[in-house]
Specification:
Elements lengths: L2 H24 L5 H26 L9 H24 L5 H8 L2 H13 L5 H17 L9 H5 L2 H25 L6 H27 L5
Length: about 220
Amino acid sequence: MELWVYATIGATIFQTLRFMLQKKLSMGALSTGGATFARFAYSAPLLAAVLAAWLVASDTELPALSARFWTMGAIGGLAQILATVCVVALFRERNFAVGITFKKTEVVQAALIGFIILGEGVSILGLVAILVGLTGVLLLSSAPEAKGSLQERLFTRAAGLGLASGLLFAISGVTYRAATLEVGADAPLLRAAVTLSAVTLMQFCAMSLWLRVFEQGQI
């Protein structure tokens, strides 16, 4: 199999584990902002260390980074922070499953945003697969035993948070790709490491400032 297949499976596994841990954090003494900050507080130094080790081991200089790289990275970083806030807020909702199901519309929304920002379309078969997935999301979001009309079961606060997180994660994914394409290096893993390290550092600084000013004690 190609590298992207392994990367996708690995990302899915780690994302699920991360959400499980963040749910546990959000049900304790941490606020939504505090639980969101946890992912950046631990990932930023780890990614910086991995990038530094890569550069030293391969005797490679840090690639030149353009203004568009920092702009796209900042947009993606902010979108990811807000998306994570939405997901963590979902953990406080009773109808958690519906919200997470709606979050999976990220794939559909990413295809649209990717076309707008990067001009990248999808094939006919890809579009059919996306629509099938969207249909499945809508069908699964309404439990048979749920009370009220279909509209009342679908359009809830949890569903709104799920859709918002899906949109914001889609924006972050597309803008991260745009930033990665701006890195002047041939190795895909190096481009990804540079982008992730820069973005998580910006997220760490932004969230630290926010919590220090508005949610003292969370850090």
